[in-house]
Design a protein that fits this description.
Elements (H helix, E strand, L loop, with lengths): L4 E8 L17 H9 L1 E3 L2 E2 L5 H10 L3 H4 L15 H7 L3 E7 L23 E5 L9 E4 L6 E2 L4 H16 L6 E10 L8 H4 L19 H34 L1 E2 L2 E5 H4 E7 L18 H4 L3 E4 L8 E3 L3 E2 H11 L14 H4 L10 E5 L11 E5 L3 E6 L2 E7 L19 H20 L7 H8 L14 H20 L4
Parallel strand pairs: 1-8, 1-11, 2-13, 3-14, 4-5, 4-8
Antiparallel strand pairs: 2-12, 5-6, 6-7, 9-10, 11-12, 15-16, 16-17, 17-18
Length: 486
């Protein structure tokens, strides 16, 4: 046995501080905490383009946003280039994908046929392009275009499918690369079984310090209810992670009978981007703030990746493809734009990157912040717009980013001016490296998503799915009416 299996658990809209081991927010995540104790937690993990579809395309192609061309939701990722699963497939891995996709454009509910649109995941496929209806969900399986309805809470059913797949792979000789892509804790924040919703009382929820103390009472109540649901989703997905980890702990690896799958599997837990949830008065992602751009990232590989380590070395989604391929002994596609950070992941702090790239290139009018480019280093977050410097935060001294050093009060501070110039040089270098002309957001939208409205492509209607959903609801209603009263 010379190549590890890969289990990649990807969540949606989970910010880096929303787990107990981060020590910031009061959320119950015993399995994530255990995983962090058994592996390495990267406290400075960043979503390069913090929005759903662009972030996922960056992760699964190893390309930055203007290269994979999926600049905002509802667009299809550029095909015919390098892919994460393609690299593993070429190295002899069996590649399976379960859950949310959101990289195919078109109708969110449509079937994605086998072939290049699945980006190399060709061994198992149980996917909906995009659904956030956690108690009335669906998926398509393998080559079958018939809708499969989810009975119950979506994350539990998706984990059931993942465990079934792992059980099949545990009897085979080939290594596997399985991605379980959970839709939670993305809103709707209240759509879950009562047993989870009851875990957090909104009256007990505490804000992070970068929330305004002067909001109207009704806003504060609404925010607490939103956070309570968000935390409940996180705790629920933590339970599903625990089920997966127990399976790996208990099942022998057929390629190494003296070892369990846990010993021979790299487990990666991450998210596509974070969630503002009212911090800084903001509710949309696609911003440079840590709540939006910062994501959880934990990696475990017993005997290889250090246990109990935390590191603030910068690492980003675009780096995961080349790094995991390298860790597994697979070939990195020459087109990949991320960095192979294998030495850093294995413990060499000196091999961390100096900075990682953050950006959101299109102007979405409903988001109350402009398109931006920027960098995150070990110590700072810096972003600029076409108008000039926007924000500069000292993330060590000011972890909740309450003091923007780009302000009138700091403009005469020689140290701040020198720091801003140093970080601007890094931004300029990244603009060159990513072939980004830093055009205005509407120009980017016109080029990459023609037909957009205020920076967003309209969602495509799916009449066949709508009819199928109505028929299902009618059938469920009839069955419910036939049941005797309790």
């Amino acid at each position: 046995m010379d190549r590890p299996n890969i289990l990649f658990v990807l969540t949606d809209q989970m910010r880096s501080t929303a787990m107990g081991c981060a020590g910031v927010e009061k959320v119950y995540t015993p399995n994530l905490d255990s995983l962090a104790a058994q592996g390495t937690r990267f406290t400075n993990a960043i979503s390069n383009t913090p929005a759903c579809a662009p972030a996922r395309a960056t992760l699964f192609t190893g390309l930055h946003v203007l290269s994979h061309e999926l600049v905002n939701n509802e667009k299809q990722v550029k095909l015919g280039t390098c892919t994460f699963a393609g690299g593993f497939r070429d190295a002899g891995y069996k590649c399976g994908y379960i859950g949310k996709w959101h990289m195919d454009g078109g109708a969110r509910t449509a079937f994605i046929p086998p072939g290049e649109r699945r980006l190399g995941f060709d061994d198992y496929w149980a996917v909906a392009n995009c659904t956030h209806s956690y108690m009335e969900s669906f998926y398509y399986e393998d080559d079958d275009p018939e809708i499969k309805w989810v009975e119950g809470y979506e994350p539990i059913v998706q984990t059931d499918l993942a465990l079934d797949y792992l059980g099949r792979k545990a009897a085979e000789e080939s290594p596997f690369f399985l991605t379980l892509s959970l839709g939670t804790p993305h809103d709707p924040y209240q759509e879950m079984p009562a047993e989870y919703a009851e875990k957090y009382r909104w009256q007990d929820i505490e804000y992070t310090p970068n929330n305004s103390p002067y909001e109207p009472a009704e806003v504060r109540v609404a925010k607490r209810k939103m956070l309570a649901g968000y935390y409940a989703h996180v705790t629920a997905l933590d339970e599903q992670l625990g089920r997966l980890l127990r399976f790996l702990d208990e099942r022998p690896d057929p390629r190494a009978p003296d070892k369990k799958l846990a010993d021979t599997t790299i487990v990666v837990f991450a998210s596509d981007h974070g969630d503002m949830l009212g911090s800084h008065g903001q509710y949309f992602k696609s911003q440079p703030y840590r709540e939006s751009a910062g994501v959880p990232l934990i990696m475990r590989w017993p005997g290889q990746i250090a246990a109990g380590r935390t590191t603030d070395g910068p690492i980003s989604l675009v780096d995961l493809m080349p790094s995991l391929l390298s860790l597994s002994g697979a070939e990195i596609p020459p087109q990949a734009e991320g960095e192979d950070l294998t030495p850093f992941i294995l413990g060499d702090e000196a091999r961390a990157q100096d900075s990682v790239w953050i950006n959101f290139p299109v102007d979405v009018k409903i988001i109350h912040s402009p398109p931006f480019r920027g960098v995150v280093t070990r110590d700072y977050t810096y972003a600029v717009t076409q108008e000039g410097p926007w924000c500069l935060f000292d993330d060590k001294e000011d972890p909740f980013q309450r003091k923007n050093l780009i302000s009138w009060a700091a403009r005469d501070n020689a140290e701040v001016v020198a720091l801003q110039q140093e970080l601007q040089q890094k931004v300029d270098a990244w603009l060159e490296r990513t072939n980004d002309p830093f055009e205005d957001g509407d120009t980017i939208s016109d080029r990459y998503q023609p037909g957009h409205r205020d920076g967003v492509l309209p969602q495509v209607a799916d009449t066949e799915f709508a009819i199928a959903l109505q028929q299902r609801r009618a059938a469920l209603g009839e069955r419910s009416a036939d049941r005797p009263a309790p």
